[in-house]
Amino acid sequence: MANKKKVIVTGFEPFGEHTVNSSWVAVQELDRLGLGEAVDLYVCEVPVEYQAVQKKLPFCPLVTSSLPFLQLVVHVGVSGLATTVTLEQCGHNEGYRRLDNCSYCPASQCCMENGPDCINSVLDMDAVCRKVNDSGLGVVVSVSKDAGRYLCDYTYYTSLYLGQGRSAFIHVPPLGKPYSSWELGKALQAIVREMLELLELDRHLHLYYIP
Fold first, then answer.
1. Which of 41, 84, 181, 206 has the fewest CB atoms within 10 Å, counting from its CB?
2. Which residues are catalytic (predicted)?
3. Annotated catalytic sites, by residue?
4. E strands in the chain
5. Interval 18-53: pLDDT, tens
6. What is the rounded distance in angstroms from the CA atom of residue 162 to the CA atom of residue 164?
7. Contact at 8 Å (CB) between 40 and 5?
8. From CA 69, how far away is CA 98, in angstroms rounded?
């Protein structure tokens, strides 16, 4: 199919108590399930390292336009406190004091010098949440405005900053608390599809809007 939509979804490597990171397991499950014939899905595992995020994300195709028809970048992380699949509405610039897998944290404790305190995704996460919860998926989805001030929040803010808000972040619980890898994969599939539909709707509204 010509001009297929492109979506990048990332998960994180193990860290701390998360010797198996459910975010990467869920992303791999999504990769097996796919997003349908009209979408090319690309997945990758992100190191739990501040400097690696700073080196990798500036070369993301969303920013460089090296991947035509790229619609969205979705980052997935694990939260040991979560019992739902949580959509993060925004990323934060400051407050990064926790050491990463290399025992490092930024001296400035921020993502981008002189960047705004908070950046919102262009996606209305409340709308995505309602649609998925109403679908009868069997996985509870919620919305948050605090991604945690660690590598999840750091990656999200950096991605939002570089991609002009066309990014999303999803927190998943650890495996079995309460969802299986397959359930998490199905939830990611449903969520990303809703995000793509919302972006398409917004595109048409802007296309046909006459001020």
1. 206
2. 152
3. 152
4. 5-12, 39-46, 70-78, 85-88, 90-92, 118-120, 141-144, 167-172
5. 999 999 999 999 999 999 999 999 999 999 999 999
6. 6
7. yes
8. 36
